Amino acid sequence: MANHVSSLKRARQTETKTAVNRSNKSKLRGSLRILREAIASGDLKTATAQYRATVSVLDKSVQKGSLHGNTASRYKSRLNARVKAIATKTPATDKPAKAKTTKPKAVKTAKA
């Protein structure tokens, strides 16, 4: 336990900052989970709306210092790619592909 006045103050500040960071990280994880669920369901409208909300939470986490800027950029890039993948899907790709029939190949005989 801290004994000096300055170390007692730092201990109080650490507790406060820890609580704030914990709250921010919890909010971020929840937002990421909701976005991943929307992506998994394949609902483009919900995924796009949730992506915007998640990007906002990521940027706020960077501002508050609970997340590194490059980490947030990496999250945004990867999540955006997944949202775009949903957008480019067409209904035709959901159908199973038909089996292709191939012509039998001519067999070459060896010359004697």
**Through-space gap between termini:** 95 Å
Please state the CA-atom Rg, rounded to the nearest Å: 26 Å
Order of helices and strands: HHH
Query: What is the CATH topology descriptor?
Result: Methane Monooxygenase Hydroxylase, Chain G, domain 1
Q: Roughly what percent helix?
A: 55-70%
Tell me, what is the CATH class? Mainly Alpha
Report the portion of residues in β strands.
under 5%
Structural class: mainly alpha
Description:
The protein has a single domain, classed as Up-down Bundle (Methane Monooxygenase Hydroxylase, Chain G, domain 1). Helix 2 runs antiparallel to helix 3. The chain has 3 helices and no strands. The longest helix has 37 residues. The chain is 70% helix and 0% strand. It is elongated and about 100 Å long. With 112 residues, it is mainly alpha-helical.
Using brief descriptors, characterize the structure shown:
elongated, 3 helices, mainly alpha, Methane Monooxygenase Hydroxylase, Chain G, domain 1, 112 residues, single chain
Short recap of the structure:
The protein has 112 residues and is an all-alpha fold.
Please render the helix and strand layout as text:
Blueprint: H1 5-41, H2 44-64, H3 69-88
Helix pairs in contact: 1-2, 2-3
